[in-house]
Structures are given as C-alpha cells and as structure tokens.
TrEMBL record:
The keyword Transcription regulation applies. Coiled coil: none annotated. This is IclR family transcriptional regulator. Residues 67-253 form the IclR-ED domain. Residues 4-66 form the HTH iclR-type domain. Keywords: DNA-binding, Transcription, Transcription regulation.
Length: 257
C-alpha cells in the first residue's frame, strides 16, 4: 500500500468502528470495506500502535482506542462549544444558586472548560483548566456511564489508574462499573465528598449527533456528610438536565436511544 491509499483505508476502518455500538472482529471490518484480511490486520496493527484502536484479544474484536476518543472530544475544547455553553451555565447557576461547570474527558481525566458562578458563590477548588480523575467527579461519571464497556476498560487498565483524593469513590474497575450502572439507571450522576470534602455535585451528559457523550454539565455545592450519604438531589438534577439538553440541541446532538 502506498501512503495515501493506506491513510484512506485506515480512516475507513475508524469510520466503521465509530458507527458500531461495540467492538467488532477484523473479519467483519474486512467484509464491510471489501479489503483482504491481511490488509485489514495490517491497518489495525498500525492504528493500534498509534492508540486509535484497541484490540480485545479475549474477544478477538477491535474497538476505538483512547487516541480516537481524544481526537473526537478535541472539538469540544474549541471556542464554539464554550461560547454556546457559557450563557446556559450562567442561567443555571443563577437558578440553582450554585456554581455550574462544563467538563470534557481527556483520557481518564475530566477537564473543566467553563465555570459560571452565582451572585453569592461558594469557594471551590476546581476551576477552568483544572483536571481531575474522571471516575471521581459527577461530571466524569456522567460521561463514562455512556461509553462502551471496552472504552472504560481501556481508560482504566490497571489499579494504579484509580487514584483517590478523599478516600471516597470507586477504587476498582468492578466498583466503577457498578457506579456507572447506577448513573444510567438514575439518569444523572452524583458524587458526595469524592473530590473535595464537604462538597457534592450533580451532573448530566451532553451528547453529539450520534448520541455519544461529548461533555457534561454539573453544579457543585456545599454538603457536609461524614458517612453513609445517599442523597441524589433530583430537583437540582432536573435543572442540570434541562441545561444539558439545551446544549445538546445547540450542538446538533441527540440523546442516545
């Protein structure tokens, strides 16, 4: 293969993987693109080496890798998204009386892009440009909950990825999966003291035109809870969800089916 046709075929492989709900076999990719299997395996090996594809050896399937996800989410770090989100977050902060933030995934970290405070804000340690372990804040869990299982596994390949800040939050992949299942069942993400003691947050995901998670809208507020907390703040979640849905519409997105 010369460079240009190989590039085109590699991009075609990524498009096939991007349109599937989960990992698929090399044979299925070869059939879809009418490529020889040897060529398909060569392309997959190169894409895997660059981080755009992950090979699930036990399942004999391939899925999108972290680099592909980061490339796609890079769109969200451009001014258009921030300009669209800022006025919505400003109104949200005024309605609920708490700080509102927009976050995106960057690998297994949550990066804050926009922060809007109410007229009488509470002091927060998070700010624009701050990165947090994605499995701890509600903003991160709201996004992780809507990723394929293989993507989450690729983001957390070993125990060292589960860093902690306050001793609370998922510490293993099974614990994280249970937490994300609760997010999907509830409809929104919550965390209480996992990022900063005596502060809690509620978050909803924002989706792209394919129904994939692109960003998250969250509000953070003081909540003193020593242990055994089970608050989910449905009234706050309703307001956050309304804002997330409005931003989803503005970016041309749709909720996943």
């Amino acid at each position: 293969m010369t460079d240009v046709p190989a590039l085109r075929r590699g991009l075609a492989v990524l498009r096939v993987l991007a349109t599937r709900p989960g990992p698929i076999s090399a044979a299925a990719i070869a059939r879809e693109l009418d490529l020889p299997r040897s060529t398909t395996y060569h392309l997959l090996a190169e894409l895997e080496a660059a981080g755009f594809v992950v090979h699930l050896a036990a399942e004999r399937r391939y899925g999108l890798g972290i680099a592909a996800f980061e490339l796609g989410s890079a769109y969200l770090r451009h001014d258009p998204l921030e300009r669209l989100a800022a006025p919505l977050l400003r109104k949200l902060a005024d309605r609920v009386g708490h700080t509102a933030q927009l976050g995106v995934l960057h690998g297994n970290e949550l990066l804050y892009l926009v922060k809007e405070r109410p007229s009488a804000p509470e002091t927060l340690v998070t700010d624009v440009g701050v990165r947090l372990p994605a499995h701890l804040p509600a903003s991160g869990q709201a996004l992780l909950a809507h990723l394929p299982h293989a993507h989450v596994r690729a983001l957390y390949p070993q125990a060292a990825a589960f860093v902690t800040r306050t001793g609370r939050g998922p510490a293993t992949l099974p614990e994280l999966r249970r937490a994300l299942a609760e997010v999907r069942a509830r409809g929104w993400a919550v965390e209480d003291g996992q990022v900063t003691r005596d502060f809690a947050s509620v978050a909803h995901a924002v989706f792209d035109h394919n129904g994939r998670p692109l960003a998250s809208v969250a509000v953070t507020f003081r909540h003193v809870c020593e242990s055994g907390c089970a608050e989910t703040w449905p009234a706050v979640a309703h307001e956050v969800g309304t804002t997330a849905a409005a931003l989803t519409r503005q970016v041309g997105g749709r909720n996943p089916t």
